[in-house]
Design a protein that fits this description.
Elements (H helix, E strand, L loop, with lengths): L15 E3 L10 E7 L10 H14 L7 E5 L3 H13 L2 E7 L4 H9 L3 E5 L4 H15 L4 E2 L7 H18 L6 E5 L4 H13 L4 E7 L28 E5 L1 H15 L5 H19 L4 E7 L16
Parallel strand pairs: 2-10, 3-4, 3-6, 4-5, 7-8, 7-10, 8-9
Antiparallel strand pairs: 1-2
Helix pairs in contact: 1-2, 1-5, 5-6, 7-8
Length: 306
């Protein structure tokens, strides 16, 4: 069999989808979403998970005798579990217990071992637990540590950023991404700084430390990822949970796109940027990330709101 037919070989090369209905009143502004939910594991996290696993193999830190261990809010864990199942590895994940039921079921379906952590501590609590488990028995585990592993952002530098440059025909004017580990924003922005330095790169994060934007970090109050570089962003957009929920519903009903909460947050922020460009009478080509699909969030009550 050709290696390109393998499941893992299908990670990346996702399309850009133009959001036409949302921009009808802004004729000179184009907004595109990078359809990362079309990755085989269902999210943008397939890219860094594969990059970190391959880096572990290259450096000898990962072999079949070790268990892949990390903290996750869900999507990176799902990516680890999918790749591990296809590659013959075992996985142990620290996950906040308030993660969506769908994420928990998907992880169990892939055979991952889950250690649930205090929901009040969010992803930071999962990070602390993973560090504790690794410190107790480092010989047993490969701990990629997605929040501090350069292979995370390098995946987006080598793939996501390069794809965006090519798919926009170098017409891109703005790039926006919300931050969890910050790997997507950091990697894509560094690629754009290299190839298209005039592009305005905008980060986004929850407006407060207490929020419902699963997987995203409010950097002023969180354990700041080691891979995060606060100097990269030209500006930052602060995200509200209710606004993201409303955009998820709007994308489903007006664009036919069933995407997750962080994708809704990204599009909501991109629209703010688009409206500002439109108000100045300028043209713009904005790209943001549709991080995952809605299948992991369909049990959430916000779908029932008007």
């Amino acid at each position: 069999m050709n290696s390109e037919s393998d499941l893992i070989a299908q990670i990346g090369a996702t399309p850009l989808l133009r959001l036409r209905t949302l921009t009808t009143e802004m004729p000179k502004v184009e907004i595109y979403g990078k359809a990362e939910f079309l990755n085989p594991g269902g999210s943008v996290k397939d890219r860094p998970a594969l990059s970190m696993i391959r880096d572990g193999e290259r450096t000898g830190r990962l072999d079949k005798t070790r268990v892949i261990l990390d903290a996750t809010s869900g999507n990176t864990g799902i990516a680890y579990a999918m790749i591990a199942a296809a590659s013959g590895y075992r996985v142990k994940l620290c996950l906040p217990s308030n993660a969506s039921e769908e994420r928990k079921r998907i992880l169990k379906a892939y055979g991952a071992e889950i250690v649930f952590t205090d929901p009040g501590e969010g992803s930071d609590g999962a990070i602390r637990k993973a560090r504790e488990i690794f410190a107790d028995d480092p010989a047993r585990y490969f701990y990629p540590d997605q929040y501090n592993n350069p292979a995370n952002w390098q995946a987006h530098f080598e793939t996501t950023g390069r794809e965006i440059v090519e798919q926009t025909g170098r017409r891109l004017t703005h790039f926006l991404a919300a931050m969890g580990t910050s790997g997507t924003f950091v990697g894509v922005t560094r690629r754009l700084r290299l190839e298209m330095p005039r592009v305005r790169c905008i980060s986004a994060q929850p407006a407060t430390g207490f929020h419902g934007l699963e997987g995203l970090k409010h950097m002023p109050t969180a354990i700041v990822p080691g891979i995060y570089d606060e100097k990269l962003a030209d500006e930052n957009v602060w995200l509200e949970t209710e606004e993201a929920h409303a955009m998820v519903r709007q994308l489903a009903r007006e664009e036919g796109l069933l995407v997750g909460i962080s994708a809704g947050a990204n599009v909501s922020a991109a629209l703010r940027i688009g409206r500002a460009i439109h108000a100045r009478g300028e043209a713009g080509v904005i790209v943001t990330i549709l991080c995952d699909g809605a299948d992991k969030y369909l049990s959430e009550p916000f779908w029932d709101e008007a």
